[in-house]
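Researcher: Here's my situation. A collaborator sent me these components and asked whether they could plausibly form a single complex. I don't have experimental data yet, so a predicted model of the whole assembly would be a useful starting point for our discussion.
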Amino acid sequence: MADIIELLRERLGEASVTLADEIESRHMSDWHVPAEPGTKPVALVRPRTPQEVSAVLAACTETRTPVVPQGGLTGLVGGATAIDGAVLLSLDRMREILELDATAGTITVEAGVPLQAIQEAADAVDLLYPLDIGSRGSCLIGGNVATNAGGNRVLRYGMTRDLVLGMEVVLADGTIVTTLNKMLKNNVGYDLKQFFIGSEGTLGVVTKVVLRLFPKPRSTATALCAFDDFDNVYAFLRRMRAGLADTMSSFEVMWPSFFEAALDKGNHRRPFAGQHAAYVLLEMMGTDPEQDGEHFEAVIGSAIEAGEVSDVVLAQSIGEADRFWAIRDMSGELDGALAPLVAFDISIETGRIAAFLDECERRCRERWSSARMYNFGHLADSNIHMFVTVEERPFPEHEIEQVIYECTQDWGGSISAEIGIGLLKRPYLAYSRSEAEIALMRRVKSALDPLNILNPTKVFEPLDIKLAAE
Amino acid sequence: MADIIELLRERLGEASVTLADEIESRHMSDWHVPAEPGTKPVALVRPRTPQEVSAVLAACTETRTPVVPQGGLTGLVGGATAIDGAVLLSLDRMREILELDATAGTITVEAGVPLQAIQEAADAVDLLYPLDIGSRGSCLIGGNVATNAGGNRVLRYGMTRDLVLGMEVVLADGTIVTTLNKMLKNNVGYDLKQFFIGSEGTLGVVTKVVLRLFPKPRSTATALCAFDDFDNVYAFLRRMRAGLADTMSSFEVMWPSFFEAALDKGNHRRPFAGQHAAYVLLEMMGTDPEQDGEHFEAVIGSAIEAGEVSDVVLAQSIGEADRFWAIRDMSGELDGALAPLVAFDISIETGRIAAFLDECERRCRERWSSARMYNFGHLADSNIHMFVTVEERPFPEHEIEQVIYECTQDWGGSISAEIGIGLLKRPYLAYSRSEAEIALMRRVKSALDPLNILNPTKVFEPLDIKLAAE
C-alpha cells in the first residue's frame, strides 16, 4: 500500500493524490450502484495531463494495484463504482477544449470536458454535437465514450461510437496511444479506437477524443399519433422512414398503461378522445423551415388515408410540442411514483418488440398475478424500456430481473441497449452473449490488460477475470 | 504438405479441394497486385458452410499452414493475393441471402453474396443498401466488410463499418463466434464485430453479416459549380452542410488540370465559359420530390448572393446530371490515358486539402520539373485522389510514392483513405501510424491469431509479424 501511494505522490505531486480517508463519498459510487460495504480505495488521483495518467497507470502496473477510471459518475450500472484497494483515477481536471474545426466539422477535447460544454461550443459556431442524455451537465465525454452512450438522438445520429473520429488512450502499462484522427475515411490498419469505445474502462483510459459535429437542424415538426392495432405502428414506421428518411429524429412509442399513468400522475390534458392500443410521438428535424411542415403533414396524411393511424394531433406551436414531450418524459417521475419497480433497458429487433412485451407480461403474470408493466421506448432504435412492478412484499427485485432477462435471452435480445454492464448486469452477461463471445472478449481483455488492473470486477464475473489473467 | 491436404479432403470432401497445379490463375492475385514470382499455394478450398470454414481453419492451425481468405478478388492492394505455401480460402460458394427484415431494416447474408445482389434484394422491397463501389457486380460482401469498403455514398451513409450490425466470424483456431445482431443499440460487453471490420483477413474469417438497409431517396438534384478562389469552396461546403444537412449526398471537387483533361479526353462539352480555380459536383438526395428542387436552388442561390460561387449550372434533367457525372467519372479513363502515373488515395483533414496538394506539387516539382498532378475527390469526406505523372524514364514510381507519402506523413494524413494496406502499402504503414499504434495492432493480432496463420505478410511487414508471433 505504502508503495503505490509513494509512487503516486512522487510522480503527480502530493496535491493530486487524495488518501483513502479523505476521499469524498461521491467518488465511491455512480448514480445508481453503491460500492460494496467495507470498500476502501487506496487513493483518489486527479491527473492533469495524459503524461500524468500514464504515470498513474505505470505505477499501478508496477505495484499490481487495480485502477477505477472515473468521469462524471453518472452511470447506472456501477461501471465507475469504487473497488476495494483500488486507485480511483478521476479525469475531471482534464477539461480543455483543444480545437474546434468548423470546416472539418470536428471538435477535439480532453476526456474530462462535460457533455454540455461540448454541445455549447458547437452551438456557438452554429453546429451540433448531437449526443444528448439527461446527465448532460454532469457527465464527462470520456465516460460517454467509455460507455458508448446513446440517448435521445440515436435514431438520427447514432450512438457515441458513430461520433468518435479520433482518440488518445493510455494502456494499462502506461503507454500513450495517440490517434487524433479528424478524417472520416482512414483505412490504415486496425481501427484501434473501436476497441476502447464501450469497453467501460476495462481496456484503457481515454484521455482525448476527436468528435464529429453536424449542421444544426433548421426546422422541427412534432405529432402525437394514436393507433388501434399495434401492427399499424410497424406499417406507420416503414411509411415514415420512407417519407422522412434521415429527417425523422424521434419515433417514441408509449403503451396504454404507460400513457394513462403519465397523463394521470402528470395532470396532463388528454390529447385524444378515448383509449388506443399504442401512441407514437413523432418528430422530424429538417433543413427547410418553409416547406418541412407541409411535407411532414403530407406524409402523415398519407398514413391517415391508408387507415394506419386512428387519430393524430399535430403540434401547432413549440409549446404544444413541449407538452407532447412532457408526457413521454414522465418516465423519470413514474420511476419514483410507481416504486418499487424494476426498470429495464432492452433491445429486441424492432418487428418483434410488441410480441416480446406480451410474452414478458405473460411470464410475469404466471408468477405474480398482480404484475403490471409500463412500457415505452425508442421503437425505431430497437430499444424498449419497461417498468415492472408487483404487489408482493418483500419486493422480488431479482426474481423479476430473472424472468425478464430469461425472456430476453429466449428472444435473442440484448439485456443492455445503452447503459452497459458494469457491476449491476454482470451476472446476466451470458444472457445476451454466447460462451464463444465471452471467451473472445476475455482474450482481448487479457491481451490489452494482462495483469487485470483496469477496472477489474466490472463487466466480467471475477471468476472469468481470474481465468483471463492466468 | 500432404498432411494439410489430407485433412482438408477428409473434412470437406475431395470436390471442395483444388490442388496447387489446378488452381485457376484468377485466384493468384487481386485486381492490382500479382503474387510474388514463384508463389505456389498448397490448395484452394471452397467451403459451403461456417462449419466447413471452421474445419479448414482448424486444419490450418493443426498443421501451421497460412490461410488467405478470398472474396471477389477485386481489391487494389493485394490483401487477397496468394501467399506461397498457403491455403486459399474462397468464400464464393456461400452466397445465400438468409433474411430480409423490412421492419427492422436489415438484411442477413452469407459472406459470399455479391454486393450487387444485396443492392437488388433491398431495392426489390423499396429499400436501399447504400454501399456502392465500381466492382459491385464482382466483389463479395465478406470482402467489403474485411476491407471496410467506402465508395460513392460515404458522405451520407458512412463506410461499411457504419452499415454492419451483426457478424459471424471464424477465428484462427476454428472457433465460430456468432453475433447476428439486428439491433441498433446493444451495449453488452465489447462490440466484437468492430475488431474484424477492416482487418483485411488477418484476425478472422467473416462468414455471415447483418447489414442496415435505408429508405430509398425520393428525389435527386444535381449542380456543377465553378469557383475562382479555393477558400470559397470551403465556405460553400459549410453553407451546403447547413442548408442541405444529411440530404447532401455528393460534394466532389475537381481541380483545373483534372477538369480540363477530363473534358478533353472525353470530348465533353465545356459547361462553363472560361477557366476556374476549382469545380464542385454537388448532389442532394431528398424525400420530397415536390419541394426539394426548389430548396436546392434556394440554398445554392444564397451562395451566389454571398459571392462564393462564380458560376453554376443546375442539371435540368437526369441526362444533364449524368453528363456532369461523366466528367467526374473520367477518372477511370484518365488513369489509362495519362499513364504512366501513380494513383493515390489520401485522407487529409478537409480544411487543409488544398494546401496539402500545393505542397505535394511543390515537392514533386522540386525533384521532377516535369511533374504534373491531376486531383479530384470527396472533399467533404476528407478524401482526395491524385494522379501524379512525370516525363522522366524509367518512370520513378516508387520515388513518387515516397515523396507523396512523406508529405502525407508530415501533414498527419492517411496513406489509405479507403482501399486498405494489404501488400502494396505495407512499407508505408508507419507513415500514418505511430510505433505505439503499430505495437498495439500487433498485440491484438497476436492475441487473436497467435500462430500467425491468418493472411500473414499482409498489413504488417514480415519482421513485425515475427515479433508478434514470438
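Model: Some features of this prediction you could bring to your collaborator: Chain B touches chain A through 97 residues (CB under 8 Å). The longest helix of chain B spans residues 230-244.
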